[in-house]
């Protein structure tokens, strides 16, 4: 069994074609800007919408019984077979678009046994598979996953291990090691960096990123994702604090600046978000 | 917004024409009715069709003829831009009833000038009193039909308050042969007659009426030519003078003779469009496959160097403005069911030709471009998309138009359209030439007669009748069939039986009413329209009498599809399945509109819902709508098998006002679902799940079309990838056998609405940076941010159905 917290249908930015994205619950990192805090813990959780809470004398703590519908259960356990059955309902859309299933999270590689079993099922049915990962995992896990994956998206949030630890709670040695290995392979890839003002948008970090990618796979696509604050409400519902209360999404100029710097390296740079800010 | 795609001078012309249009307030236009009445006073004793034809010729000879500044294609069915034309012989009394309120009513207001009011009171009313189709209908309506109508389960008056419409005339035949060629054909048929043979005298009368109408058309064109010459004489600007002289030359040639150039073909087309609208005010005179019948003219002009693509585009754009000059006049009630002065001049591009080959040509793209350039509410632009044959570049152009957010084009899955025509009894070799008509109905130019949307059935009422043993909740009246006390329905099978009996009853009553309307319409000949139906000439039989090559029974339209499915699914699941709810408690809760029964409301709201790819609801969509199609098709009229369809125009809103709370969790008096779309706010799994559910409806059985509305946020179409994926979505829709979709690209105003009423916008996806989310699930601050960044589209709002 695996634990997931959401399935998104008709996603168009998580790999080629029209995709069905499965979000697995549990993540080794704690990125300051994380937009889905409900993805972090590997177990079931409950969120509470304060504006709906009727303040009962004693809380039933059961989302199914909550009279104000303020409580929400986050996470559910599924078997690989059940999950396959659920996502396969979107098959007509994959066929026409060259799409398929994307596993995201959280960190999907945190549940390797479940992941492998599910991916093996997908491959036995010729379903296109993709993953979004932070690459914080053992090499064997990555290598095994690669056998089943048609497309891999990964993030490089900071090139300096100290900075990486400061921003995400994790050092990046293993991540860079895995990235090198992947970049040297012939696997179709997309690399992304979430551009978070004041955190990882310094020129030094951007140059280190550009030169790393250019050295290990010239021509690889790097997508700059504008930082956004879409998940802030979730923190309140989970009773947690958002670590970047005052950070603003990058302006168009800031996005363009990052793009300009990165374009000096032999890689393909694209942008997402921030166009209209 | 500036027009794109054509040169600045052409764009400026369109802007000026549009400006005049958009600043004109609709006004009742009684000139045609006045001339008609005067003519009828002169022709007493003559056969009805002769009188109609003579009145038409008199209108052509006497009506105001004006050419507006800047226009290149001329003609007007009345005397004003945006005039509401009254078909006095059909429905004079509608205006009578609304004389004081026509400019204050809720939908589709019209100015009524004092002098027009006087004409109406002095001339029109005294003559037509007791003589209109509408009065005939009111006098004949049976009590069971009236009971359904008056208790909100049925809307059926619209055919009695306006003319035929819902037809695609034989434009191609008309333009290619000219009036002259058609007259030759009529004369030939006449020469075969022998007045001593029974029946031939009637035929002679009819063919003479057609000749009279033909004469009128040539007179009218000649008057436009004279007017253009007159204006050219006064014109100081040499360029405009040349244009006017060209218009004069065109009008002297067409429609009398076969068109020789693209501009003449467009002019001939528009004259005919004006003429049939003049003959009878109605919605949905569908231009049909213009990219096909205009292409030979365009191609020849190009090859001869007579025209450039830019010039052709400008002419099309000018024609598009003309389409928007028409304004449908209808009674206040009908306006509620189809608001926005909807002319539904459905014009189509794409599809396959009669040999089954890809029919997309340069004009197909230019037709889409004309709608992009003009951004007006007419014509009602449709595409036939044939996945196997039409190129990707055509699909891409379609998506580029969709993203502009005007609601156009209506996207039709060609293969399903072809099957619908075949299911109407038309052989494949001709079905390949089908075109969408009106909203999403199926039609065949110059060959097919029927009211494609005669009556609307309220499926919400049907559910209510099952639960109240045939009573209407709002009025308490016994309107439906007595199908028993629901407390006695011990099993799901008992309930299902009652439901099907109720559906059977309502459909049967509607069929009976349709037959009566067919009888009344025998007295509503339309010689100007019939002129382009070749078989009307060879059989000397009017369109109204069944003279067209193919005739079918009228269209019976279902409204409240999702309400029916979700209500029945909730009952099956809660009362007979999980038994979480008793029928008694459900009935109490519905009676109280769920007030004090919040737990029941929650159960109902959480029950399986259509639109989520959930077989527990979707299976019912397949079962019930196969049953409904079977029922409707089990009846025949004197013209052919009765035909089912699912298109709401805007009828789901007024129908909703008639229906109390439903087991689906819908509160009393709220709008019903539109078309085959899910109930607002009950689809949670995105567009792919909606399409999967919708695919359970047997679309090809509903031969008058099925209508699906989908909402999409502009962010989804911002990038090249977004466009590519929407193209893939549309192809998937075709694979699933869904017939039609039109997209509402949600603008800023809609998002603000969604923020205020999240329950109605639960399924609305927005593109957030890096991912896609349900708008209503985002926090308010985030919503505000998305609202702020959503560009307000300033396109003139398009009315689609």
Describe the structure.
The complex is a heterodimer of chains A (about 280) and B (about 800). In chain A, the strands form two sheets. A nine-stranded mixed sheet of chain A has the order 5-1-2-6-7-8-9-10-11. In chain A, strands 3-4 form a two-stranded antiparallel ribbon. By secondary structure, chain A is of the alpha/beta class. The radius of gyration of chain A is 19 Å and the shape is globular. Chain A is built from nine helices and eleven strands. In chain B, helix 17 (about 390-400) links the parallel strand 5 (about 380-385) and strand 6 (about 410-415). In chain B, helix 11 (about 260-280) runs parallel beside helix 14 (about 310-325), helix 16 (about 360-375) runs parallel beside helix 17 and helix 21 (about 490-520) packs parallel to helix 27. Chain B has 32 helices and 19 strands. Chain B is of the alpha/beta class. Chain B starts with 7 loop residues before the first helix and ends in a 12-residue tail after the last helix. In chain B, the strands form seven sheets. In chain B, strands 4-5-6-17-16 form a five-stranded mixed sheet. In chain B, strands 3-10-12-15 form a four-stranded mixed sheet. The interface of A and B includes residues 272, 273 and 275 of A.
Give me the Rg of chain A, rounded: 19 Å
Task: Name the poorly predicted regions of chain B.
Answer: 1-5, 790-801
Strands of the biggest beta sheet of chain A: in what spatial order? 5-1-2-6-7-8-9-10-11
Largest sheet features of chain A:
9 strands, mixed
Tally of DSSP β-strands of chain B = 19
What fraction, in percent, of the residue positions of chain A are helical? 25-40%
Question: What fraction of the residues of chain B are assigned to beta strands by DSSP?
Answer: 5-15%
Largest sheet, strands/sense/barrel of chain B: 5 strands, mixed
CATH third-tier fold name of chain A: TIM Barrel
Please give the most extensive interface between any two protein chains, plus how many residues each contributes: A-B, 36 and 34 residues
% residues in beta strands of chain A: 15-25%
Oligomeric organization of the protein chains = heterodimer
- In CATH, what is the class of chain A? Alpha Beta
The N- and C-terminal alpha carbons of chain B lie at a distance of 24 Å
CATH architecture of chain A: Alpha-Beta Barrel
Number of strands of chain A: 11
């Amino acid at each position: 069994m695996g634990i997931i917290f959401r399935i998104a249908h008709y996603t168009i930015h998580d790999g080629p074609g029209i995709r069905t994205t499965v979000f697995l619950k549990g993540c080794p990192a704690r990125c300051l800007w994380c937009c889905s805090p409900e993805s972090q813990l590997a177990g079931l959780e409950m969120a509470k919408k304060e504006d709906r809470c009727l303040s009962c004398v004693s809380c039933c703590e059961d989302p199914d019984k909550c009279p104000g519908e303020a409580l929400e259960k986050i996470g559910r356990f599924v078997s690989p077979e059940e999950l396959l059955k659920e996502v396969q309902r979107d098959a007509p859309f994959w066929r026409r678009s060259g799409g398929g299933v994307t596993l995201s999270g959280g960190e999907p590689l945190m549940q390797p046994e479940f992941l492998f079993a599910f991916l093996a099922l997908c491959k036995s049915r010729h379903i296109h598979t993709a993953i979004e990962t932070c690459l914080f995992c053992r090499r064997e896990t990555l290598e095994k996953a690669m056998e089943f994956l048609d497309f891999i998206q990964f993030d490089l949030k900071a090139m300096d291990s100290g900075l990486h630890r400061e921003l995400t709670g994790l050092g990046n040695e293993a991540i860079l090691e895995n990235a090198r290995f992947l970049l040297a392979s012939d696997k179709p890839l997309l690399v992304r960096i979430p551009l978070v003002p004041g955190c990882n948008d310094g020129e030094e970090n951007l140059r280190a990123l550009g030169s790393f990618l250019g050295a290990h796979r010239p021509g690889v696509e790097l997508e700059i994702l504008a930082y956004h604050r879409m998940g802030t409400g979730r923190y309140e519902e989970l009773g947690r604090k958002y670590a970047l209360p005052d950070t603003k999404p990058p302006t168009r100029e800031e996005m363009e600046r990052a793009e300009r710097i990165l374009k000096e390296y032999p890689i393909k740079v694209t942008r997402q978000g921030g166009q209209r800010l | 917004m500036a027009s794109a795609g054509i040169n600045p001078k052409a764009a400026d012309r369109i802007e000026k024409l549009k400006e005049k249009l958009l600043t004109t307030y609709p006004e009742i236009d009684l000139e045609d009715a006045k001339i008609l009445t005067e003519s009828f006073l002169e022709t007493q004793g003559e056969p009805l069709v002769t009188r109609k034809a003579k009145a038409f010729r008199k209108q052509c000879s006497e009506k105001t003829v004006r050419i507006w500044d800047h226009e290149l294609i001329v003609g007007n069915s009345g005397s004003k831009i945006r005039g509401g034309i009254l078909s006095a012989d059909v429905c004079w009394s509608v205006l009578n009833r609304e004389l004081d309120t026509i400019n204050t009513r809720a939908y589709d207001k019209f100015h009524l000038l004092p002098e027009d009011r006087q004409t109406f009171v002095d001339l029109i009313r005294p003559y037509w009193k007791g003589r209109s189709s509408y009065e005939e209908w009111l006098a004949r309506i049976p009590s069971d039909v009236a009971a359904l109508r008056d208790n909100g389960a049925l809307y059926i008056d619209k055919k009695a308050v306006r003319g035929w419409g819902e037809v695609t005339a034989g434009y191609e035949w008309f333009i290619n042969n000219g009036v002259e060629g058609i007259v030759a054909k009529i004369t030939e048929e006449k020469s075969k007659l022998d007045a001593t043979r029974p029946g031939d005298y009637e035929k002679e009368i009819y063919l003479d009426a057609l000749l009279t109408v033909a004469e009128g058309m040539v007179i009218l064109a000649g008057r436009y030519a004279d007017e253009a010459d007159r204006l050219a004489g006064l014109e100081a600007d040499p360029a405009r003078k040349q244009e006017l002289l060209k218009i004069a030359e065109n009008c002297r040639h067409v429609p009398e003779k076969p068109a020789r150039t693209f501009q003449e073909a467009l002019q001939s087309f528009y004259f005919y469009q004006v003429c049939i609208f003049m003959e009878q005010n109605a919605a949905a005179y569908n231009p049909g496959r213009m990219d096909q019948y205009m292409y030979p003219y365009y191609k020849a002009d190009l090859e001869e160097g007579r025209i450039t693509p830019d010039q052709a585009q400008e002419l099309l754009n000018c024609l598009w403005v003309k389409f928007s000059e028409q304004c449908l006049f209808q009674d206040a009630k009908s306006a509620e069911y189809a608001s926005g002065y909807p002319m539904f001049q459905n014009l189509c591009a794409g599809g396959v030709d009669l040999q089954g080959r890809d029919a997309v040509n340069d004009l197909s793209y230019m037709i889409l471009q004309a709608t992009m350039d003009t951004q007006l509410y007419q014509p009602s632009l449709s595409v036939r998309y044939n996945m196997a044959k039409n190129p990707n570049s055509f699909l891409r152009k379609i998506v580029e138009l969709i993203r502009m957010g005007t609601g156009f084009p209506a996207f039709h899955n060609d293969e399903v359209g072809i099957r619908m025509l075949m299911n109407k009894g038309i052989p494949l070799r001709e079905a390949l030439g089908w075109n969408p008509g009106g909203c999403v109905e199926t039609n065949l130019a110059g060959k097919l007669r029927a009211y494609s949307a005669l009556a609307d059935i309220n499926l919400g009422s049907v559910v209510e009748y099952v639960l109240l043993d045939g009573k209407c909740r709002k009025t308490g009246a016994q309107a439906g069939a007595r199908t028993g006390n629901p407390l006695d329905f011990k099993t799901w099978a008992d309930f299902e039986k009652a439901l099907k009996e109720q559906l059977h009853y309502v459909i049967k009553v509607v069929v009976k009413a349709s037959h009566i309307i067919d009888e009344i319409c025998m007295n509503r000949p339309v010689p100007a329209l019939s002129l382009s139906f070749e078989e009307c000439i060879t059989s000397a039989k009017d369109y109204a009498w069944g003279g067209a090559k193919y005739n079918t029974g009228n269209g019976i339209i279902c409204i409240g599809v999702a309400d029916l499915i979700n209500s029945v699914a909730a009952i099956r699941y809660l009362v007979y399945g999980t038994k979480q709810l008793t029928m008694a408690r459900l009935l109490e809760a519905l009676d109280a509109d769920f007030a004090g029964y919040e737990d029941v409301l929650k159960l109902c709201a959480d029950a399986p819902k259509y639109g989520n790819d959930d077989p527990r609801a979707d299976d019912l969509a397949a079962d019930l709508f196969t049953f409904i199609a079977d029922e409707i098709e089990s009846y025949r009229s004197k013209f052919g098998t009765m035909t089912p369809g699912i298109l709401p125009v805007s009828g789901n809103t007024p129908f909703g006002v008639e229906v109390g709370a439903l087991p689906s969790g819908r509160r009393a008096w709220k709008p019903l679902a539109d078309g085959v779309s899910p109930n607002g706010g009950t689809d949670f799994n995105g567009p792919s799940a909606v399409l999967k559910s919708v695919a359970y409806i047997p679309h090809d059985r509903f031969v008058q079309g099925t209508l699906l509305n989908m909402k999409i946020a502009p962010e989804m179409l911002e990038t090249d990838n977004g466009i590519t994926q929407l193209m893939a979505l549309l192809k998937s829709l075709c694979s699933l056998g869904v017939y039609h979709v039109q997209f509402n690209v949600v603008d800023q105003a809609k998002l603000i609405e969604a923020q205020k009423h999240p329950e109605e916008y639960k399924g609305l996806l927005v593109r957030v940076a890096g991912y896609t989310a349900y708008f209503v699930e985002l926090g308010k601050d985030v919503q505000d941010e998305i609202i702020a960044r959503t560009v307000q589209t300033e396109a003139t709002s398009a009315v689609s159905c």
